[in-house]
Specification:
The protein is globular, with a radius of gyration of 17 Å. The protein has an 8-stranded antiparallel barrel. Helix content is 31%, strand content 39%. Helix 4 packs antiparallel against helix 5. It is built from 6 helices and 8 strands. By secondary structure, the protein is of the alpha+beta class. This is YdbC family protein. It comes from Streptomyces blastmyceticus. Pfam families: DUF4937.
Length: 201
């Protein structure tokens, strides 16, 4: 599975949201699995979108054919767009489905990992982070993806911002020490995204 993460700064909120509804046109696309997103909780003008495709080949075919027609409705409503593609490495909790209806927030952690620490980082994701998140109340499902250049994405869906907040306060620091995250990661960024139900396709 291919995971697409789009982040942009919105300059015309009403126009952007109107254009966002046009992405319902994705539904007939071969290989399309789902899309959703919302607004950054920390930066109110930043929008995040997450798209899921069966494979890179299906995604490339869509980009070559239908993308520009669907995207035209949002032209001029945003700036500073960043698009990243990640190959699915494993689920966080079993049975990931690209559905957003039951999620209140999505947490994204975007990591650039030191070249000599990639193996350790991925092992810690499997042995430390995934079980801790999977066992946390309110954590629904997630996905761990990789892009070229030692770049990784951890995307987790939560049924409430409050439950994610408890996990962050209670466990994050302790888990980071156990997983030796500081030694593995050269740079880390991320956001907490409040899901906008009308954007779900």
């Amino acid at each position: 599975m291919l995971v697409k993460w789009i982040r942009c700064t919105v300059v015309d909120r009403r126009g952007f949201e109107r254009g966002q509804r046009k992405w319902a046109g994705l539904l007939g696309e071969p290989g399309f699995r789902g899309q959703g997103g919302g607004w950054s909780r920390g930066r109110p003008h930043v929008a995040h979108l997450f798209g899921f495709w069966e494979s890179r080949a299906f995604y490339d075919s869509f980009m070559a054919r239908s993308h520009d027609r669907l995207a035209a409705a949002q032209a001029g409503t945003f700036k500073n767009i960043q698009v990243r593609l990640f190959e699915h490495r494993c689920d966080v909790k079993v049975g990931f489905r690209p559905q957003f209806a039951d999620a209140d927030v999505v947490r994204i952690a975007h990591c650039r990992v030191r070249e000599d620490r990639v193996e350790h980082f991925t092992l810690m994701q499997e042995k430390v982070w995934n079980p801790a998140m999977a066992g946390s109340p309110g954590m629904l499902r997630g996905v761990f993806g990789e892009a070229p250049g030692q770049e990784f994405l951890v995307l987790s869906m939560w049924d409430s911002g409050a439950e994610y907040g408890k996990y962050r306060v209670d466990r994050l620091e302790r888990l980071a020490l156990r997983a030796q995250t500081e030694a593995d990661v050269a740079a880390i960024g991320g956001d907490i995204v409040a899901i906008e139900p009308s954007w779900t396709v």
